[in-house]
Amino acid sequence: MTAAGHKSLRKKVRELEDLLEESKRAITYYQRISEESGKRRLREISQLSRLIEERRKSEEAISNAKEEWERTFDAVPDLVMILDGNFRIVKANRAMADTLGLAPDELTGLLCYEHVHGLDHPPLFCPHQRMLEDEKPHTVEVTESRLKGVFLVSVSPLRDRKGRVTGAVHVARDITKRKRAEELIQKANQDLERKVAERTHELYIMNEKLRHEIEERKQTEKKIRETEQDLKQQTEHLERTNTALRVLIEHRDEEKRQLQANILANVEKLIFPYIEQLEVRATERDVKSYLSIIRTNLEDLISPFSSQLSSTDLRLTPAQLQVADLVRQGLTNKEIALHLNVSVDAVGFHRKNIRRKLGLIYKKINLRTYLQQIS
Known about the structure:
This protein has 375 residues and is of the alpha+beta class. It folds into 3 domains: 1-75; 76-174, PAS domain (Beta-Lactamase, 2-Layer Sandwich), CATH 3.30.450.20; 260-374, no CATH class. The protein has helices at residues 3-31, 38-75, 94-100, 104-107, 112-116, 127-134, 176-281, 285-310, 318-328, 333-340, 344-358, 367-374, and strands at 79-84, 89-92, 138-144, 149-159, 165-174. The protein has a 5-stranded antiparallel β-sheet with strand order 2-1-5-4-3, with helices on both faces. A hairpin with a 5-residue loop joins strand 4 and strand 5 (165-174). Helix 1 packs antiparallel against helix 2 (38-75). The two termini are 116 Å apart.
């Protein structure tokens, strides 16, 4: 209940007390009236009864209002006291009494600064003292160990009918949890600011490092471009050199193939036929033995040129081996005919027999590719 409500309630109590006094005087007056004025007395008694009934109802209403005010006063969770001008407690609610460990009636008449703060004088921050000095409301934040918490204390002046300050309503709200939350938030903000500062410093260092790395990378890229230019020139030179070497190697490979083909052809055409005739006509065992050695050595000599084809055990004739080797090397029928000094038709005949012995008749398989694979 506010100070204005409290003031209004006290005014009503005084009015009802005045009315009760007037009723008592009226009763005394009517008792002195003579019996001759009976009818008049009855009417007055009736009026007096009504007045008494009205007074009873008023007193009951005042009592109910007082009880309701006290219940409301005690139901407020904040710590509430009504103080006079001398810092004495006029009334305290249940929350204040429980906090101080006393009954509400036991606090009446006690000095607030003695029982709330444990001092023999008002503290420097006392809002009640300030209110008495300037007659204005005051609010302060108080940390009080006796009350085990932090409180937001508000003091509002109480005035009499002439406007003079007679006391104050003293309300203390417990803000301990809020202050702890604020402290946690403040600590969290400080931690966040510290982490932001640390992270900012780390980012600055990283940026500096990155700037140096970028500068180094630019220098490296410049050197790489210069090196690439040199490599490009060297590569062009090497490509030209490789082209020349490939031409030489191809020419040499061609000469090598030609030499191999000539050696193979000459041995098979010019030497083996005579050896075969000598083997047939030779009668002495030593001569046949020497001829066998000569044949074996010659076969070993030409084996790098024809061993792959002869090892397939396809029973190719010497002429077919020559044609197969030249086909594998990529020569055309005309080129093979020129190499072997035979007709193009003869080369075609040999190719057909080679395909037949290799099982390639009626198959769409390139003869040269197949010979390269089995080689």
